[in-house]
Amino acid sequence: MTVQESAQAQAAGRAMIELRNVNKWYGDFHVLKDINIGVRKGERVVVCGPSGSGKSTMIRCINRLEEHQKGHIFVDGIELTGDVKHVEAIRREVGMVFQQFNLFPHLTVLQNLTLAPIWVRKMPKKEAEELAMQLLERVKIPEQASKYPGQLSGGQQQRVAIARSLCMKPEVMLFDEPTSALDPEMIKEVLDVMIGLAQEGMTMICVTHEMGFARTVADTMIFMDRGQIVEVAPPKEFFANPKSDRTKLFLSQILSH
Amino acid sequence: MTDIAHGTQVELDDTPRSTLERVSDWVRANLFNSVLNSVLTLLIAAGIVWFVFPLLRWAIFNSTLMAESDRACQATGGACWAFLGKWGAFLLFGRFPAEERWRPALVLVLFAAMLFMSARRGTGGRTLFAMWVGGLIVIFALMWGGFLGMPYVETDLWNGLPLNLILSLGGVGLSFPIAILAALGRRSRMPAIRWLSVAYIELIRGVPLITLLFMASVMFPLFLPAGVSVDKLWRAEVALMLFFGAYLAEAIRGGLQVIPRGQYEAADALGLGYWRKMFLVILPQALTISIPSIVNIAIGAFKDTVLITIVGIFDLLGDVNNAMNDPNWRHAYWEAYSFAGAIFFAVCFYMSRYSQRLERSLSRARPGGRRR
Predict the structure, then answer these.
(1) Which residue from A91, A148, A161 is facing B369, i.e. has the nearest CB?
(2) ipTM
(3) What is the CATH topology of the domain spanning B87-365?
(4) Are A54 and A32 in contact (CB under 8 A)?
(5) Chain B partners within 8 Å of A96 (Cβ)
(6) pTM of this prediction?
(7) Inter-chain contact A119–B369, Cβ cutoff 8 Å?
(8) pLDDT tens across B223-267, in order?
(9) According to CATH, where is 1.10.3720.10 located in chain B?
């Protein structure tokens, strides 16, 4: 990106993440249509919408797990292009938590956490392990450090996955339906960790159907449907007074049970 | 099955039974539990008697342990093990200078020790890797000599069983880097790299090993500038390496294919980059999964090395053929080939048991997460 563009991005209120007219197609299928979002530093955004609405695809574009074909994505002032250096720089700043945890099964919990700091951040092993132990304390499972992921419950695995992302000291955390693969009794332990993160001021974009969580932590709610952003509003307004019919329908379906 | 009903009956009956009764019960339940099984049991028993007794008579009762030539043995009609006393060391080590035979013998011991260490559970991957690299260096140094008072021995005289092991295990070991690159390349998003890998794998797999060996030993020197020559053994080793590499690449690709996409995405999301992602996250898992097929390839490789005789390098089988030229022992081929066969069987059987055990321990570890 040029110096001019960078200056523009900074002028726009220090946007941590900015999507401008982002479009994406899978073959003929138009998954993302003219997406425009700005996320400030410290802002907590919850994205919801029916399945297939493109919400996962959108946040996966932010760290280039998916490629967008049109439009611009800026993360911390760096534009995401095909340039591998930009992609890697952005991935270092953006942590991601997946629906399926995706821990590395051949490494212990501690090794899962220290892998990226040691190899990407070039942190000394001892320092990385201290950091990892601090983060395991924070997600309340320090006693599992030497176990393998396969020996943990789903909720524990997801908390390890969160700690693994935090180990890279990211500026932004992306959550892609982090509780959808969990048994109901484990959802709370994961949400508690996420609420803690939000209270500490982490910039977060979270795709989730946990509306209670959204009410508690979100600064902004985004509702997506069929590849478009339908509604953007603060949670109070979003839940009490949704403007579009599609939002009303979605909320009635998701809150009725 | 009928023996289930029978089994329950035996369990319910708690009166003490003699060993003889239990044996006869077992025989009745397993060998003679139906007309068909009884007939089969009798037929197989007859086959064993028909085959095993003559074999024992040949191998043991009528065999000759001391003789100066095979004519002495012909009188008894049994095996002429005296031949092995005379020629056994030559079969194992070939034309390696006789007074230096302790060197290839030590190489065999080293190989056996390394195979044993590899099969033992609880030896870490890094230790094993270091052991094999170090071990192979020592082995080559021992064979070559030229230091510490050990005379230099040219590769032409490296014969027999150590050569089979060097060519196969060395070849498989050396082919790992190329196999990993080809396996990764075949899944690459860059068309040039993908096509190059596919071309290498399919070309090599589409050609018999003998053809490759001939090309390495006959055609390759024609392309070299005058005065430059590459040792015949190394040309053959490179041919074997390329050959094993193609098969190994496919085995590794099989492992790569079952690694879930989420593993790649998680590594990407952490910013590991391509090579660190592959070497730290993907390959350790893929290689573990492919161990059984890798061991299969190693077994095949070991047996394939006998083809090397065709290009004038004498492995164990080549030595057997050479020994047959001794007019005194021209009729001892049964003994010579049984000897070679027994060695091949022992090595391959050991490797196959090793792979079975690995497979079992891997499948046991999987449900509760993989453990070391």
Answers:
(1) A148
(2) 0.90
(3) MetI-like fold (1.10.3720)
(4) yes
(5) 265-266, 269
(6) 0.80
(7) no
(8) 877 777 778 888 888 899 999 999 999 999 999 999 999 999 999
(9) 87-365
